[in-house]
Structure formats: C-alpha cells, structure tokens
HRDC domain-containing protein (Streptomyces johnsoniae), 420 residues
Amino acid sequence: MTDAQQTAAADPGLAPSEPSGPAPVPLLAPREGVPPVVADEESLAGVVAAFAAGSGPVAVDAERASGYRYGQRAYLVQLRRAGAGTALIDPVACPDLGALGGELAVTEWVLHAATQDLPCLRDIGMVPTRLFDTELAGRLAGFARVGLGVMVETVLGYSLEKGHSAVDWSSRPLPEPWLRYAALDVELLVDLRDALEEELTRQGKFDWALEEFAAIAAAPPPPPRKDPWRRTSGVHKVRRRRQLAIVRELWTARDQVAQRRDLSPGKVLSDAAIIAAAQAAPVDARALAGLHGFGHRMGRRQLQHWQTAVDRARALPEAELPQPGQQVSGPPPPRSWPEKDPAAAARLTAARAAVTAHAEELNLPQENLLAPDVVRRLCWEPPADREPAAIAGALRALGAREWQIARTSDSLAQALAAEA
C-alpha cells in the first residue's frame, strides 16, 4: 500500500493525495526491452496467438496524430498482458486487428481515459466487452489529479516520461525513444488497475466503478455531430446570418481539403482566419489576402479557393442562411432560465447544491456523482410527483446509473420538493 493509501486508510474521510515520502523512481525502459513494431500479417498472427495464451487483464493504449492528421485514427497500438509481454502494432501496416480484438473480446481491457481511445480502436476491429478505466477509477477514488503519469507516481511510486505525448505519431519510421515511451505507457497499467481496485474496495466504491465501466463498454458510437461548423473557435463573435453562412462555407471547404490531404484542419486554415473572413465578408481575393490568416505566403490559387467559398455564402438567398444559435434538444442554457422559467432556475440552484454537498461527502467530483446534463434535464422538466421513487425513475430514464440514483434521489427529491 502506498503512503497515500495508508493515510486515507487511517481516516476514510480523507482523499487520497500525492505521497510526501521518497521521490518517485524513474521508469526508464520496459522490463523486457522495447519490442519491435508489428508491421506485417505474419508478425501480427504471432501477437494474436501470444495474447490469446496470456492470462489476466490486458493493458491497451493507442497513439493518434491529433493536430497533424485528419480525424482521430490510431497510428500505434500498445498492449501488454501477463504471459505475452508487450506488443507494439502499426495499424497503418496492419489496419484490421479484428482477429486480435476477437481473441481478447471477453478479457478485461485496462485503459486510461478509455473514451478517448475506444473510437479509434473500434475503427480497426478492437471492441472490448469489459474494461477498467484507470482515469475514471482515480476520479471515483477522490484523487485530485488523474493523468496517467501522476497516477503512476501517486499510487505506484514510479515516474513516467511524458515528453512524446504530442508528437506526430503518423511519422515513419517511429524513433526508438517514442517507442520506448509508448511501451512504458502500458508497462504498469495493470499494476495501477489492481492498486485502484484495492483503494476503491476500501472506500466501498468498487461496485460503482464496475457500473461506470460497464456503461462505457456498452455505449454505442456517438452519432455524427449536427452542424459541426458551429464549433469553430470564435464563432460566438459572429452574429449576422450572412456571416454565419461564410463560416459554414469556409469550414466545409477546409474540411474537404483537410480530408483529401490527410491533414489536421487547423494546418489547412485556422479558425481565426475563418472568423476574420466571416466578419469582413471580402468581395474578392485581393481583399481576402489582407485579412488575418490569408497572408502573403498563401498562393493565388489557394486564395481563390477560399474566396469562392465566401462568394457562395454571399450569393445564398435569405431562406438558406443559417440561424444564429444551434437548435438543440433539451433545456436551454441555464443562464437563460431566470428569465424563461424562474421556478426551474430555483430548482436547478437547489439541485446543484444538493449534488455538490453529497459529492463532497463521498469524496468524488460532482460530475461523476451525477452528470450536469442529467441534473439540468431533471430540473427543467421534473416529474409531477416529487417523491424519491418518482425522481429515481426520472433519473433512470435520463441514463443515470443505479449507484448514482441510490445516492442522489432522496436529496434531489427534497431539493425539488422545497422549490415546488
């Protein structure tokens, strides 16, 4: 047990904290060395056989090239399992890992921040049915910081190098220091999982964690985002519908170029440039060239490409211009509640206070006790019956887990009844 765990065990009301004892031991290399990258079907078949014959949970991680390439595909997959060691797989050379995913489907997968990696793993045929998320486990256990490096230091007493987290993983060949870093990311993941299970069990929270992990594993892929252009940074500065149309046309044109060239959209054209063009609505490429983000380094052909997008927006009839603000389902932004529905605003204030107070008692973040969106939807359209059983049913319909319902329905019923 670590110093932090011993301190927490002495007083269950205390949160786990970073140890104040000896400095963490640097973890400089995987215990069996850095394995060669698997980049052909024969080598992949060997990995499948080795991991199928292994035992216990399998540590899984993936490296993407966010900020460099289009989309969120995996450019390296790392796995480690007792009896199989560590494997580094190149999913560009081996794009179908369905056989490996199939062999490991019923095995517990250990990931850190699972929701970040599951989409790109799913794309290459790797879909777990059981998982353990060490980041989420850390949140439930009450750790103040839950990054992988900090968790390994706090719980296990080792320090990991994190200097290569933002490199371009689409580069080939991958440098040896990057591969060593990648292998170390799964080196102690199962050890961390075991220590966190012990801590969660001590706090009486392990069953809560299992419900959370099951919900992540069972969640379907998210649907495509509606009007993704509305997430352009700075779009809140654009008020007029014609200007919004320019944002939409430039965003769409940029996305098409980025996808064709397999580049991060920001490397093709910055969000700031899109907003500048929308606000100025230039009449020709010469005027466009004078705006931020469209400087002298941009060629005439490129400038004309973007100006053509601006011209499309300028030519749209009024009926085809986008409306300001995104049409969303569910309640409006809470800042507008006092004016739209003062009673709902009062309910939300009382409910938030109840959830916050109980989360502090349980030593976990309030958003993990109950998702803020669930609280908002409950308060905007509460059931007519404000008894705990009715509140529990409403929470269940909104997707809350059973452990969350058991610990919030009574206090929420009291809060909503007081504001009825």
Summary: The longest helix spans residues 241-261. The longest strand covers residues 55-64.
